[in-house]
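Risk register update: the risk of archive-format incompatibility is retired. Evidence:
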Amino acid sequence: MATEYEVRYASGPEAVKKYDTEQIRKEFLVDSIMQPDKICLVYTHYDRYIAGSAVPVKKDLTLETIDPLKAEHFLDRREMGVINVGGSGTVSVDGEDFELGFKEALYIGKGAKDVKFSSADSNKPAKFYINSAPAHQSYPNKKVTKDDANKLELGSLESSNARTVNQMLVSGIVDTCQLQMGMTELKTGSIWNTVPSHVHDRRMEVYFYFDLPEDQAVSHFMGQTDETRHIWMHNEQAVISPPWSIHAGAGTSNYTFIWGMAGENLDYGDMDVCPINEMK
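Archived output:
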């Protein structure tokens, strides 16, 4: 089948304290997410969020429903965000085509029935990174480029965390029910993201790391502020961040990551900052 999926159940902080490296990676790391000619999905019980990909190479790929949704169509009760991290491609939504270049995004509203993914060149296929969350009403489909994004310049080279946050599928740019997505680009010479770290207990998050050289890695930090854990990650891998967990990373090279969120609120600034000197 062209669609593969797995289900991840939620874990509480007390349980995670006892996990070894293998168990932490099994619960939170989304490995080998970009598979040629497949749609790969992870359905997580954190806010019923779905993260995945569609990589059409030799054939177009159709978004099919999966059993956990108990729905005729994937987006009957859901909204979706798509960001292309590969070659040029097209997402067709109920017959309307949206061409997406590298680092361009698309919001697809609740109720879309026929969604297809295709590549302009099979030698340089599109790599569509997908996030989806439950939705209570339908909003218009909308393409968003980096030029359309709300840009935040954060950090500094002195603290090795100079970065540009591209807010793409967020309030003020796109109407959504709860899904928010964006892309953070680390500047040359910077390695740290999301520092100082924070927790937002009213929404969960998924990070997808890319633009990372194949011989380099990112150490992603998670856990409670006084009981942190880390996961070593490589190019085109994702990690699930529970609402109770910090989410930050340090790379052996600069990189880009896509963040996607869902939960109770749409206020990007609603977070509890964790002072660096209090981390353990």
